[in-house]
Amino acid sequence: MTWGRLVCAITTPFDDDGALDLAAFRRTLMHIEPHVDAAFVAGTTGEFPALAEAERHDLFTTALDVLGPDRTIAHVGAVDAVSTVRIAADAALNGVTGFAAITPYYLPASVGEVQGHLARVREAVTGTLLGYFFPDRTGVDLDAAAIASVIAGAGLDGAKLSGRASGVVSDVVRATASLNRSISVYSGNDGDLEGVLSQGGSGIVSGCSTAFPELFAEAAAALDDTGGWGAGSETLRADLSHVAALVAPSIGRVKYALSARGVASTAARMSVDPPHADVRSAIVDAVAALTRA
């Protein structure tokens, strides 16, 4: 299956003591629910390396309750395959049917090692499974041909490409075209929905859309299948570009925007600095402009 053009890489809320705030997570889900096609839960924007397995379980079940299984993508990835499979199996038992798993990280990993890691996840769950390729954070840098080989060899249903990997969307689309099944290719580049669609990609997995789901949903609806904008979309295109550039660089900025909208606090568990005063002011202005609109 594919989840549509706009998947929200949702943040994970915490209280001031660093405890998981499930009530705020439910509010965040309700905030995005009318606008996005699906939510990518416990991903990078969701600070997954700092989450316990039990906390991921709670996030997945809450997302299932609000969005249902067809719109919940559980990121089950961990540094090792044993943990990844355990998290994935638990999610499946609770009704998850859409999964994503990051490549192994910290230690270098060959194409064969990445394929073996993800193949173990594929064997553990049914449903749709995306490989998550983020070389800037994992240190595992595969070219498009290698990514396509992993998708084919591990039996994946597609990929989420972030960081440097978001620059090879078209190459991965071409390299997987010969497979006799549908492959979804998503980009983690918030500001490039136009480019992703023009390259044959499925859409974006956007952290910014957690704070500004209405704007991103409007853009997703305005673009045609080749990434072309309809007449009169100049203002929308400019607003999307501005918000993506303003908010995308930092989890702290996304959380500040959510706080400005009264959805969740700015607290993060990982080492995330709050935005500087000028950026905070610009975010408040962007929220105000959206509210007026």
Automatic annotation (TrEMBL):
It comes from the Bacteria. The active site is at Y132 (proton donor/acceptor), K160 (schiff-base intermediate with substrate). It holds the Pfam family DHDPS. Pyruvate binds at T45, V205. InterPro entries: Aldolase_TIM, DapA-like. Keywords: Lyase. SMART domains: DHDPS. GO terms for molecular function: 4-hydroxy-tetrahydrodipicolinate synthase activity. Coiled coil: none annotated. Signal peptide: none annotated. Belongs to the DapA family. This is 4-hydroxy-tetrahydrodipicolinate synthase. It comes from Frondihabitans australicus.
